[in-house]
Amino acid sequence: MPGVRYRSIMSNRFVPLSPGEPIGVVALSGPVDRDRLEAGLRILQGWGHPLVLAPNIEARSAYLAGDDDARVAGLEWVVARGATLLMAARGGFGVTRVLPRLPLLELAAAGVRFAGYSDTSALLNAMAAAGGTVQVHGPMVAAGLGRRGNELRLQRVLAGEMVGETLFRFDRRRVVRPGLAAGHAIGGTLSVLAALIGTPHEPRWDGSVLFIEEVGEPLYRLDRLLTQLRASARLRGVKALICGGLRGCGSVAERASRWPEMVAEAAPPEAAVVIDLPFGHGACNLAFPIGATVEVDTDGGAIRWSE
Q1: What domains can be seen in the chain, in order of their start residue?
Q2: Catalytic pick from 202, 217, 281, 295?
Protein backbone atom coordinates (compact mmCIF):
# COMPACT_ATOMS: atom_id res chain seq x y z
CA MET A 1 0.00 0.00 0.00
CA PRO A 2 1.57 3.34 -1.04
CA GLY A 3 0.53 5.10 2.17
CA VAL A 4 2.57 2.74 4.34
CA ARG A 5 5.65 3.45 2.28
CA TYR A 6 5.04 7.19 2.48
CA ARG A 7 4.61 7.24 6.23
CA SER A 8 7.86 5.36 6.81
CA ILE A 9 10.15 7.92 5.17
CA MET A 10 9.00 11.27 6.59
CA SER A 11 11.65 13.98 6.27
CA ASN A 12 12.56 16.87 8.58
CA ARG A 13 14.44 18.80 5.87
CA PHE A 14 13.47 22.38 5.10
CA VAL A 15 14.35 24.13 1.84
CA PRO A 16 14.14 27.93 2.15
CA LEU A 17 13.00 30.16 -0.67
CA SER A 18 16.05 31.41 -2.57
CA PRO A 19 16.45 34.95 -3.96
CA GLY A 20 14.91 35.13 -7.41
CA GLU A 21 13.41 31.65 -7.15
CA PRO A 22 10.09 31.39 -9.05
CA ILE A 23 6.90 30.98 -7.05
CA GLY A 24 4.17 28.85 -8.57
CA VAL A 25 0.49 29.53 -7.93
CA VAL A 26 -1.77 26.51 -8.27
CA ALA A 27 -5.54 25.99 -8.07
CA LEU A 28 -6.29 22.44 -6.93
CA SER A 29 -9.46 23.24 -5.01
CA GLY A 30 -12.34 25.66 -5.52
CA PRO A 31 -12.75 28.42 -8.14
CA VAL A 32 -10.79 31.57 -7.31
CA ASP A 33 -12.34 35.01 -6.92
CA ARG A 34 -10.62 37.25 -9.47
CA ASP A 35 -10.41 40.36 -7.30
CA ARG A 36 -8.92 38.46 -4.36
CA LEU A 37 -6.53 36.65 -6.66
CA GLU A 38 -5.30 39.87 -8.24
CA ALA A 39 -4.84 41.48 -4.83
CA GLY A 40 -2.79 38.51 -3.65
CA LEU A 41 -0.72 38.42 -6.82
CA ARG A 42 0.15 42.10 -6.38
CA ILE A 43 1.49 41.25 -2.92
CA LEU A 44 3.57 38.38 -4.29
CA GLN A 45 4.94 40.56 -7.08
CA GLY A 46 6.27 42.86 -4.38
CA TRP A 47 8.43 40.01 -3.08
CA GLY A 48 10.62 40.22 -6.16
CA HIS A 49 10.14 36.66 -7.39
CA PRO A 50 8.91 35.62 -10.83
CA LEU A 51 5.43 34.11 -10.66
CA VAL A 52 4.28 31.04 -12.58
CA LEU A 53 0.48 30.78 -12.70
CA ALA A 54 -1.31 27.52 -13.40
CA PRO A 55 -3.36 27.72 -16.62
CA ASN A 56 -6.55 26.78 -14.72
CA ILE A 57 -6.11 29.57 -12.18
CA GLU A 58 -9.36 31.27 -13.26
CA ALA A 59 -11.20 28.15 -14.41
CA ARG A 60 -14.57 27.17 -12.96
CA SER A 61 -16.36 23.84 -13.05
CA ALA A 62 -19.18 24.01 -10.50
CA TYR A 63 -17.39 24.12 -7.11
CA LEU A 64 -13.96 23.33 -8.56
CA ALA A 65 -11.24 25.33 -10.35
CA GLY A 66 -11.69 23.24 -13.47
CA ASP A 67 -12.19 19.50 -13.72
CA ASP A 68 -9.74 17.02 -12.22
CA ASP A 69 -7.71 16.79 -15.44
CA ALA A 70 -7.34 20.58 -15.64
CA ARG A 71 -6.30 20.96 -12.01
CA VAL A 72 -3.69 18.20 -12.19
CA ALA A 73 -2.41 19.52 -15.53
CA GLY A 74 -2.13 23.01 -14.00
CA LEU A 75 0.11 21.70 -11.25
CA GLU A 76 2.26 19.74 -13.70
CA TRP A 77 2.58 22.81 -15.96
CA VAL A 78 3.85 24.98 -13.11
CA VAL A 79 6.39 22.39 -11.94
CA ALA A 80 7.61 21.83 -15.50
CA ARG A 81 8.49 25.52 -15.65
CA GLY A 82 10.86 25.31 -12.72
CA ALA A 83 8.74 26.30 -9.73
CA THR A 84 9.26 24.15 -6.65
CA LEU A 85 7.58 26.47 -4.14
CA LEU A 86 3.88 26.24 -4.95
CA MET A 87 1.32 28.44 -3.23
CA ALA A 88 -2.33 27.49 -3.26
CA ALA A 89 -4.66 30.10 -4.69
CA ARG A 90 -7.49 29.21 -2.31
CA GLY A 91 -9.16 26.32 -0.48
CA GLY A 92 -12.64 24.88 -0.68
CA PHE A 93 -12.66 21.30 -1.92
CA GLY A 94 -10.84 19.33 -4.58
CA VAL A 95 -7.41 18.25 -3.35
CA THR A 96 -8.53 14.85 -2.09
CA ARG A 97 -10.11 14.13 -5.50
CA VAL A 98 -6.74 14.43 -7.24
CA LEU A 99 -4.33 13.18 -4.55
CA PRO A 100 -4.31 9.61 -5.97
CA ARG A 101 -3.22 11.06 -9.34
CA LEU A 102 -0.35 13.17 -8.06
CA PRO A 103 3.20 11.74 -8.25
CA LEU A 104 3.92 12.51 -4.61
CA LEU A 105 7.20 10.63 -4.45
CA GLU A 106 8.48 12.39 -7.57
CA LEU A 107 7.40 15.78 -6.26
CA ALA A 108 9.02 15.03 -2.91
CA ALA A 109 12.27 13.96 -4.57
CA ALA A 110 12.27 17.19 -6.59
CA GLY A 111 12.06 19.28 -3.42
CA VAL A 112 8.59 20.62 -4.17
CA ARG A 113 6.95 22.29 -1.21
CA PHE A 114 3.45 23.69 -0.93
CA ALA A 115 2.07 26.57 1.10
CA GLY A 116 -1.58 26.83 2.02
CA TYR A 117 -4.23 25.69 4.47
CA SER A 118 -7.86 24.54 4.52
CA ASP A 119 -8.33 21.98 1.70
CA THR A 120 -4.61 22.23 0.91
CA SER A 121 -3.76 20.73 4.31
CA ALA A 122 -4.49 17.30 2.79
CA LEU A 123 -1.64 17.86 0.33
CA LEU A 124 0.74 19.33 2.93
CA ASN A 125 0.46 16.22 5.09
CA ALA A 126 0.63 13.82 2.15
CA MET A 127 3.78 15.49 0.84
CA ALA A 128 5.46 15.45 4.25
CA ALA A 129 4.54 11.77 4.69
CA ALA A 130 5.95 11.02 1.24
CA GLY A 131 9.38 12.04 2.46
CA GLY A 132 9.29 15.50 0.97
CA THR A 133 10.82 18.64 2.38
CA VAL A 134 8.94 20.44 5.16
CA GLN A 135 5.69 21.97 3.91
CA VAL A 136 4.10 25.24 5.06
CA HIS A 137 0.66 25.70 6.61
CA GLY A 138 -0.24 29.33 6.10
CA PRO A 139 -2.19 31.91 4.09
CA MET A 140 -3.02 31.41 0.43
CA VAL A 141 -2.78 33.87 -2.43
CA ALA A 142 -6.48 34.76 -2.43
CA ALA A 143 -7.15 33.89 1.21
CA GLY A 144 -5.37 35.62 4.07
CA LEU A 145 -2.27 36.96 2.34
CA GLY A 146 -3.70 40.49 2.36
CA ARG A 147 -3.28 40.82 6.10
CA ARG A 148 0.18 42.30 6.64
CA GLY A 149 1.00 40.22 9.70
CA ASN A 150 0.14 37.02 7.83
CA GLU A 151 2.29 38.05 4.88
CA LEU A 152 5.34 38.94 6.99
CA ARG A 153 5.14 35.71 8.98
CA LEU A 154 4.83 33.65 5.77
CA GLN A 155 7.87 35.40 4.32
CA ARG A 156 9.91 34.61 7.44
CA VAL A 157 8.90 30.96 7.40
CA LEU A 158 9.62 30.56 3.69
CA ALA A 159 13.02 32.25 4.07
CA GLY A 160 14.00 29.82 6.82
CA GLU A 161 14.17 32.55 9.44
CA MET A 162 11.86 30.70 11.85
CA VAL A 163 13.92 27.51 12.08
CA GLY A 164 15.05 27.22 15.69
CA GLU A 165 12.72 30.05 16.69
CA THR A 166 9.46 30.28 18.63
CA LEU A 167 6.43 29.79 16.40
CA PHE A 168 3.71 30.58 18.93
CA ARG A 169 3.56 32.10 22.39
CA PHE A 170 0.59 31.71 24.70
CA ASP A 171 -0.48 32.32 28.29
CA ARG A 172 -1.93 29.89 30.81
CA ARG A 173 -5.49 30.64 29.73
CA ARG A 174 -4.76 28.74 26.50
CA VAL A 175 -3.46 25.64 28.29
CA VAL A 176 -6.07 22.92 28.71
CA ARG A 177 -3.54 20.30 29.83
CA PRO A 178 0.08 21.13 30.70
CA GLY A 179 3.07 19.22 29.48
CA LEU A 180 6.30 19.04 27.52
CA ALA A 181 6.29 17.41 24.10
CA ALA A 182 8.30 17.13 20.92
CA GLY A 183 7.35 15.55 17.62
CA HIS A 184 6.85 16.09 13.93
CA ALA A 185 4.15 18.64 13.15
CA ILE A 186 1.08 17.43 11.27
CA GLY A 187 -2.38 18.85 10.91
CA GLY A 188 -4.67 21.42 9.39
CA THR A 189 -8.43 21.59 9.04
CA LEU A 190 -10.03 18.95 11.26
CA SER A 191 -12.65 17.83 8.74
CA VAL A 192 -9.99 17.42 6.03
CA LEU A 193 -7.79 15.32 8.32
CA ALA A 194 -10.73 13.09 9.22
CA ALA A 195 -11.46 12.60 5.51
CA LEU A 196 -7.94 11.22 5.01
CA ILE A 197 -8.41 8.36 7.46
CA GLY A 198 -8.18 5.00 5.70
CA THR A 199 -6.57 6.48 2.58
CA PRO A 200 -2.92 6.10 1.54
CA HIS A 201 -2.46 9.83 2.17
CA GLU A 202 -3.24 10.27 5.85
CA PRO A 203 -0.58 11.79 8.10
CA ARG A 204 1.85 9.83 10.21
CA TRP A 205 0.01 10.26 13.48
CA ASP A 206 2.26 8.40 15.92
CA GLY A 207 4.78 10.63 17.68
CA SER A 208 3.29 13.79 16.21
CA VAL A 209 2.34 17.22 17.47
CA LEU A 210 -1.11 17.60 15.93
CA PHE A 211 -2.39 21.06 14.93
CA ILE A 212 -6.12 21.39 14.20
CA GLU A 213 -8.48 24.20 13.26
CA GLU A 214 -11.90 24.44 11.63
CA VAL A 215 -14.46 26.76 10.07
CA GLY A 216 -18.24 26.81 9.90
CA GLU A 217 -18.93 23.56 11.76
CA PRO A 218 -21.29 23.41 14.77
CA LEU A 219 -19.83 21.98 17.93
CA TYR A 220 -21.61 18.64 17.62
CA ARG A 221 -19.87 18.07 14.28
CA LEU A 222 -16.52 18.94 15.84
CA ASP A 223 -17.32 16.39 18.54
CA ARG A 224 -18.12 13.83 15.83
CA LEU A 225 -14.84 14.50 14.02
CA LEU A 226 -12.75 14.24 17.19
CA THR A 227 -14.61 11.07 18.14
CA GLN A 228 -13.75 9.59 14.74
CA LEU A 229 -10.06 10.36 15.23
CA ARG A 230 -10.09 8.89 18.71
CA ALA A 231 -12.17 5.80 17.86
CA SER A 232 -9.92 5.00 14.91
CA ALA A 233 -6.88 5.11 17.25
CA ARG A 234 -5.31 7.95 15.25
CA LEU A 235 -4.78 10.03 18.39
CA ARG A 236 -3.29 7.24 20.49
CA GLY A 237 0.35 8.19 19.80
CA VAL A 238 -0.06 11.98 19.51
CA LYS A 239 2.31 13.88 21.83
CA ALA A 240 0.44 17.19 21.90
CA LEU A 241 -2.80 18.61 20.50
CA ILE A 242 -2.59 22.24 19.41
CA CYS A 243 -5.80 24.02 18.42
CA GLY A 244 -6.15 27.12 16.26
CA GLY A 245 -9.13 29.15 15.14
CA LEU A 246 -12.74 27.93 15.08
CA ARG A 247 -14.34 30.67 12.99
CA GLY A 248 -18.09 30.21 12.72
CA CYS A 249 -18.09 27.08 14.89
CA GLY A 250 -20.90 27.86 17.33
CA SER A 251 -21.09 30.88 19.58
CA VAL A 252 -18.14 32.22 21.53
CA ALA A 253 -19.84 31.18 24.77
CA GLU A 254 -20.43 27.63 23.50
CA ARG A 255 -16.84 27.25 22.40
CA ALA A 256 -15.49 28.61 25.67
CA SER A 257 -17.47 26.10 27.73
CA ARG A 258 -17.41 22.98 25.56
CA TRP A 259 -14.35 23.00 23.27
CA PRO A 260 -11.70 22.60 26.02
CA GLU A 261 -13.58 19.59 27.36
CA MET A 262 -13.89 18.05 23.90
CA VAL A 263 -10.19 18.27 23.03
CA ALA A 264 -9.09 17.11 26.49
CA GLU A 265 -11.34 14.08 26.14
CA ALA A 266 -10.05 13.29 22.64
CA ALA A 267 -6.32 13.66 23.32
CA PRO A 268 -4.30 10.93 25.05
CA PRO A 269 -4.15 11.55 28.82
CA GLU A 270 -0.41 12.29 28.72
CA ALA A 271 -0.61 14.73 25.78
CA ALA A 272 -0.29 18.48 26.24
CA VAL A 273 -3.33 20.40 24.96
CA VAL A 274 -3.35 24.07 23.96
CA ILE A 275 -6.23 26.01 22.37
CA ASP A 276 -7.01 29.31 20.61
CA LEU A 277 -3.73 29.91 18.79
CA PRO A 278 -3.67 32.25 15.76
CA PHE A 279 -3.69 29.89 12.80
CA GLY A 280 -6.39 28.65 10.45
CA HIS A 281 -9.45 30.33 8.99
CA GLY A 282 -9.42 33.35 11.29
CA ALA A 283 -8.15 36.76 10.28
CA CYS A 284 -4.76 36.05 11.87
CA ASN A 285 -3.28 32.96 10.20
CA LEU A 286 0.36 32.58 11.21
CA ALA A 287 2.37 30.17 9.07
CA PHE A 288 4.07 27.14 10.61
CA PRO A 289 5.82 24.03 9.26
CA ILE A 290 4.24 20.66 8.50
CA GLY A 291 6.74 17.81 8.80
CA ALA A 292 9.29 19.64 10.94
CA THR A 293 10.05 18.72 14.53
CA VAL A 294 8.45 21.13 16.98
CA GLU A 295 8.69 21.42 20.76
CA VAL A 296 5.79 22.30 23.05
CA ASP A 297 6.43 23.77 26.51
CA THR A 298 3.24 24.82 28.26
CA ASP A 299 5.08 26.13 31.36
CA GLY A 300 7.14 28.38 29.11
CA GLY A 301 4.09 29.21 27.00
CA ALA A 302 5.81 28.46 23.70
CA ILE A 303 5.91 26.21 20.66
CA ARG A 304 9.32 26.17 18.98
CA TRP A 305 10.56 24.91 15.61
CA SER A 306 13.47 22.62 16.51
CA GLU A 307 16.68 23.05 14.56
Answers
A1: 20-159 (3.40.50.10740), 165-305 (3.50.30.60)
A2: 281
Give the H or E element holding residue 106: helix 104-109
Asked if 29 is an active-site residue, the reply is no
pLDDT at 9: 55
Catalytic status, residue 21: no
Angle (deg, nearest 10), helices 252-266 and 219-231: 10
Using the predicted structure, report yes or no on whether residue 192 has a pLDDT greater than 60. Answer: yes
From the candidates 49, 201, 202, 213, give the one annotated as an active-site residue: 213
201 catalytically annotated: no
167, pLDDT greater than 90: yes
97: buried, middle or exposed (CB in 10 Å: 19+, 13-18, 0-12)?
middle
Q: CA 223, CA 278: separation in Å to the nearest integer?
A: 21
Q: What's the rounded Cα separation, in Å, for the pair 302 and 168? A: 6
Among the listed residues 118, 121, 191, 208, the single catalytic one is: 118
Residues in the chain: 307
For residue 244, how many C-alpha atoms fall within 13 Å in the half-sphere facing its CB? 29
